[in-house]
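ok so i was messing around last nite and threw this chain in just to see what happens. nothing serious, just curious
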Amino acid sequence: MDFKTIIAENIAKEVNLNINEISDFVEVPKEKSNGDFSFPCFKLAKELKKAPQIIAEELKTKLEAIAEFMDLFEKIDVVNGFLNFYVSKVHLVKEATEKFAKQDKEYGISKEGEGKRVIIEYSSPNIAKPFHIGHLKTTIIGHSLYNIYKYLGYKTFGLNHLGDFGTQFAKLIEGYKRWGEEYDFSSNPIDKLADIYRRINQLCTDDEEVLEICRENFKKLEDGDEEYVALWTKFKELSLIEFEKIYDELGITFDEYDGEAFYSDKIPEVLDILNKSGAVIESEGAKIIDLTDQGIDSPIMVQKSNGSSIYATRDLATILYRVRQYDYDKNIYVVGNEQGLYFRQLFAASKYLGIEQKYIDGLEHVGYGIIMLPEGKMSTRKGNFIKAQDIIDETVNKVKSIMKDKNTDLSDEETNKIANQVGIGAIVFDYLHDNRNKTQIFDINEATNFNGETGPYIQYTAVRTKSVIEKAGGIIPKFEDINLEKLTDDYSISVLKLISNFGQILNTALEKSEPSILSRYLIDVAESYSSFYNANKIINDDKELQEARIYLTHMVNITLTNGLNLLGIEVPEKM
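result:
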């Protein structure tokens, strides 16, 4: 039973409007005291030529006269031109539990995306550079969106578009040729390469001639110089070994690892298409596309004056390839907000590739705020960053220390396994806790707080639900045997309202490309269940009451577990 649709249908009949004109405005109030659903009557003021308060009072009278309608609602009231609807507790319990019972362990899954294809490009670190905590954000956001799209039935492709081409690698090659013999690459090779990059980058800043040499080196690399290609291949192989360690710890896999270099042989075709489109013009020897006709003042360069490509050329080649290879409905780039202008330029320039408008419309940049160190912004060029592996190790060790203080019954093996699950969960949840556009400073003490709005708190609540079920015998009662009237108290209703909204939460998270909508929701569910748990004796002599509360506990367990898994977080067996 869809209460929102029922409300919209009945209002639409009374005001003689299409249900679609009403449905979008029926909402769940932020304040619980304002009912379960609300309709702002000022949306009808212009159409009905009446004050919102009058419209609300008239609608209230008409709706209260409909017996079938009022069988579903305890009452309707009017507050400042809003119609507030209070769903009958019995019907609300029935609706929430029936909806859950149809899917049980697969609760929230849907086929709404069936037949649609979505590409999500995320993580995409630069080879030969350490994987730092800034890379974690794109990785974690992208992976959560990937999981949710897949869960809702979309054919989803997770792509790791490695930064493995460009002048930066020509710089690294030059630095390696100059100073490579000074380093022992048998251990921590990426750190050594990062130090070489820092040195050569500084030299390029100080000496324009060295920078020009590096630019020429890139042209040689692009043209397939054997020595340069061999060094580039070595850097890439060393990098992937390091990256895979981190992805394994995070539980992340990708459908493709094609980096920028993969598209280098596709650049001539792209340049040919762009040149034939008439969009390309010369500027100081380079080739650019003027985008002023699309409201963008800055042009986009597609070829340097020395004939070598630029990342925009390779990104345009990537779009063309993905159109042909994936026939996508959406092509999402999870990249920092600092690249916002660039993606506007790239998407605008894509119209000159000769592809259908639907593919251009399907391009989406999902941005996010920067990660800050206490002393400021990170920079691999300056060697000022925190490695992802270091923050993972430190967080896991922090959790391990907390666990040893709390629980002495766990074996070392259990402690290590759970500490990894909770430590990774703490990091992932902290990155997804707030709106993705916010600037963030990772606070390990906050993230690992078992009592705060954190991953460990939600994991602990999920584990508690398992424990409650086990203490009751470990058997989940059959839905048809539940006496639903035993769940009409305020604490149960609060939990059930939230659980019944899980599917809508997932849809909204995708509509806004905002995983924090799901993470905040899970906090609400965990807190609501904690209140229910503290106020109610679950295991008791009243068998009907116990079975109803155990079933509600099972509903919470599945909702929290599925929600956490979609964020990329495991639920331990015990904590």
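not much to say yet. Residues 96 and 496 are 6 Å apart (CA to CA).
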